[in-house]
Design goal:
With about 110 residues, the protein is mainly alpha-helical. The chain is built from six helices and no strands. The longest helix is centred in the last third of the chain and has 16 residues. The chain is rod-shaped. The mean pLDDT is about 85.
Length: about 110
């Protein structure tokens, strides 16, 4: 990875007409590294866009069901069977993790 100063130097020298090999030799870097930054390589890692869970469409239903039976509690296995009827194709573990967070926030 190149520092900001090195990237600026690479871009300036490239505009002056130096080849990738000459740039690499001058900066003691690999040719592919120089090529990467000349072709618009980034200064760091890009953050991935968040991907929704299979469980996201069913969260509203879950909140309504949990609120309807307060102060009692619905087991995750029962809730799992209920949302499977609506088309949930995920595993029970995702549901258990979500219900654990909801249960701890309701207790406080």
């Amino acid at each position: 990875m190149l520092s900001c100063e090195e990237i600026m130097e690479v871009n300036i020298l490239r505009k002056q007409g130096l080849s990738f090999r000459k740039l690499a030799k001058k900066l003691c870097k690999a040719v592919n590294t120089i090529r990467k930054y000349c072709n618009g390589g980034s200064l760091g890692y890009k953050r991935r866009s968040s991907v929704g869970s299979k469980f996201d469409p069913y969260k509203d239903y879950m909140k309504q069901r949990i609120a309807a039976v307060q102060p009692k509690w619905i087991p995750a296995s029962v809730m799992f069977r209920e949302i499977q009827v609506f088309g949930y194709i995920g595993k029970v573990r995702i549901l258990q993790d979500y219900m654990r967070t909801v249960k701890t926030t309701n207790l406080v």
